[in-house]
Amino acid sequence: MLETSARLLRLLGLLQGRAYWPGAELAGRLGVSPRTLRRDVGKLRRLGYPIDAVGGVGGGYQMGSGGALPPLLLDDEEAVAVAVALGTAAGGAVTGIAETSVRALAKLDQVLPSRLRHQVGTLGAAMVTMPAAGPTVDPATLTAIAAAVRDRERLRFGYVAREGEESVRDAEPYRLVSGGRRWYLLGWDTTRYDWRTYRVDRMSLRVPNGPRFVPRPLPDEDVARYLTLSTATRPHRYQAVVTMCAPAVEVAGEVPVTLGVVEPIDERTCVLRIGSDSLDHLAVWVATFGFEFDVREPPELLERLRTLTGRLQRAAWPSDRPREDE
Which of 52, 79, 126, 234 is the most buried (most CB within 10 A)? Predict the structure, then answer.
């Protein structure tokens, strides 16, 4: 009986660790016959685990979705990762998830082996989560968008633009991206016939979803880079291109991903693309990153840097300012 129970747990772990298992390969991993494998799968089904049999040459098995959530098997690294993630979720950008995370963490902590509980405790004691600032996102909204991405269904939603203008949008959703403390949706706007990036906290979903769509090629396979360009440079009045006299990895360490995009030129230089509605902001940013640089565009930024240089010189050497006659 103990051997059978251990085999069932191992079978469950294998099924949860991969999307699909050919029957022969799965039986071989367990060291049982196909007939015994079928019996074991039947036992797991009776325990509430939704396991689907897949037809085809030889057949196979995969975990399905059921009406209730059965227990999951986690290895040591997965358990630690889940515990740490739950512990930091209270400071995240998702509304109302803190209390739920604490409840889930309490359940996980109860069954963690002492060696793993020590790891989680050590990490938790060393970590501090800064509370989220600004608007947050309802988990139900993220789930609904993710489901539409998965099912390739168009979304209809109200949207508030950065300037406060309200509109109704219809879009094909492709990717949800977390950037800093913001969630973004990359989608094809069906009325503007172009790719758009939407802030999820500015979206108000409307039901039901629209019709299914045939996916288009993404505008860039590196969605994170595309999103950074879209949010950090393109929406702004000024887009600066600056050659930084330092390796890309060093510059990227100083430039937040929500602020600019760093592209290597060679081992010693790189290009920084950064945007703002204010030339003063651009001048201060590029000057304070801590590297020598050359401005490639826009030309107005050079004049603003000269103005800023004079202002800083007057502040640094106030005794050199001309005095008014008393």
Answer: 79
Give the whole-angstrom CA distance, residue 87 versus residue 186. Answer: 29
pLDDT of residue 96: 62
| 227-252 pLDDT per residue, tens | 777 766 666 788 889 999 999 999 98
Strands 203-206 and 194-199: unpaired
CA dihedral 223, 225, 231, 233 (to 10 degrees): -140
| Sites in the chain below the pLDDT cut of 50 | 1-2, 326
Q: Summarize pLDDT for 184-228 with one digit per residue, the tens.
A: 899 999 998 999 989 899 999 998 999 999 999 998 888 877 877
**β-sheet bridge partners, residue 188:** 172, 195
CA gap 242, 257 in Å, rounded: 16
Nearest to 238 by CA among 293, 191, 190, 298: 298
Question: What is the rounded distance in angstroms from the CA atom of residue 150 to the CA atom of residue 242?
Answer: 39
At residue 71, φ and ψ (nearest 5 deg) are -60, 150
User: Which residues, in sequence order, are bridge partners of residue 183?
Assistant: 178
- The terminus-to-terminus CA distance of the chain in angstroms comes to 102
pTM: 0.55
Q: Which token pair is 153?
A: 């269904």
> What's the token pair of residue 13?
């772990």
Separation CA 132–CA 97 (nearest Å): 12
Residue 45 makes CB contacts below 8 A (sequence gap 6+) with 51
Ramachandran sector of residue 134 (left: φ over 0; alpha: ψ -120 to 50; beta: rest): left
